[in-house]
């Protein structure tokens, strides 16, 4: 009865300051649930999963009947939503076997991710192939000897970008400059000294220097050497930048160039 419900609530539910909470008592009485079920329900909703999910009693009872925990249940709904399903529909919200539905959706998710990775891998390969074409057309694949152990060239391999990024602390790889070059937005030139990266220069197709940096570990002191500035300017006087048309891949029924 009501009196017994109030006594039970007052006995077990206090707020964070250790004082009796009227809101908690009212919530318990309004629910019409037995104490143990209501307590379990309150504990269930205290687990918010990144603060997003508060379940109604119907959903809580459904999960209890189906023996599926809160995280797995909401993971199921999230995957269903991401795959374009209407999760307000009871077919997705309350499936007969939620664990089996979760696993089926997970299989689909992993397959979609696998396809996306394959597509991205093929696209990345296409970028590096394009960079090699650009370097060849501009006759800078093998580089130009600048004297004093310095060589200027157009990078076209992942390893060249990676080494320059690591040695010079530059974002040319993480910033995906290789995609920018492949898409004909600019050209990237590198100067290496005795086989080690020394500076990187980005130019437009009018030979304007957009940026030219050496080691960027210290951003207040990352200019290339005076010698590199001089030889870069001299090189650009007679350099005639050439574009190479780049047609992005179409992924449909296979890879097409």
Outline:
With 257 residues, this protein is an alpha+beta fold.
Question: Can you tell me about this structure?
Answer:
The radius of gyration is 31 Å and the shape is elongated. The protein has helices at residues 2-12, 22-31, 35-46, 57-66, 70-82, 90-93, 98-137, 158-168, 177-182, 226-238; strands spanning 144-147, 150-153, 187-193, 196-203, 209-213, 250-251, 255-256. The strands form 2 sheets. It has a 5-stranded antiparallel sheet, sandwiched between helices. A two-stranded antiparallel sheet has the order 6-7. It is an alpha+beta fold and 257 residues long.
Give helix and strand order, one letter per element, not per position.
HHHHHHHEEHHEEEHEE
Low-confidence blocks of residues: 249-257
Which percent band covers the strand fraction? 5-15%
The count of helical stretches stands at 10
Rg on CA atoms, Å: 31 Å
Described by its quaternary structure, the protein is single chain
**Major beta sheet summary:** 5 strands, antiparallel
Tell me the total number of β-strands. 7
Shape: elongated
Please state how the strands of the largest beta sheet are arranged side by side.
1-2-3-4-5
Helical residues, percent? 40-55%
- The end-to-end distance, rounded to whole angstroms, is 76 Å
Global structural class? alpha+beta
Mean pLDDT: 85
């Amino acid at each position: 009865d009501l009196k017994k419900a109030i006594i039970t609530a007052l006995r077990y539910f206090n707020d964070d300051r250790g004082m009796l909470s009227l809101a908690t008592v009212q919530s318990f009485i309004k629910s019409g649930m037995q104490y143990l079920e209501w307590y379990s329900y309150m504990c269930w909703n205290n687990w918010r999963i990144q603060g997003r999910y508060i379940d109604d009693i119907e959903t809580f009872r459904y999960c209890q009947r189906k023996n599926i925990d809160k995280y797995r249940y909401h993971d199921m709904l999230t995957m269903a939503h991401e795959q374009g399903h209407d999760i307000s529909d009871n077919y997705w919200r309350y499936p007969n076997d939620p664990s089996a539905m979760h696993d089926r959706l997970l299989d689909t998710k992993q397959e979609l991710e696998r396809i996306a990775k394959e597509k991205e891998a093929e696209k990345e390969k296409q970028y590096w192939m394009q960079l090699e074409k650009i370097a060849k057309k501009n006759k800078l694949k093998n580089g130009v000897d600048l004297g004093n152990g310095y060589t200027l060239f157009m990078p076209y391999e992942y390893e060249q970008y990676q080494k320059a990024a690591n040695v010079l602390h530059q974002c040319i790889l993480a910033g995906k400059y290789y995609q920018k070059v492949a898409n004909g937005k600019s050209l990237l030139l590198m100067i290496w000294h005795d086989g080690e990266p020394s500076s990187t220069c980005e130019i437009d197709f009018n030979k304007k220097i957009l940026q030219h940096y050496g080691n960027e570990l210290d951003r207040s002191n990352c200019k290339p050497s005076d010698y590199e500035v001089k030889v870069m300017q001299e090189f650009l006087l007679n350099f005639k930048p050439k574009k190479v048309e780049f047609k992005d891949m179409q992924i449909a029924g296979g890879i097409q160039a």
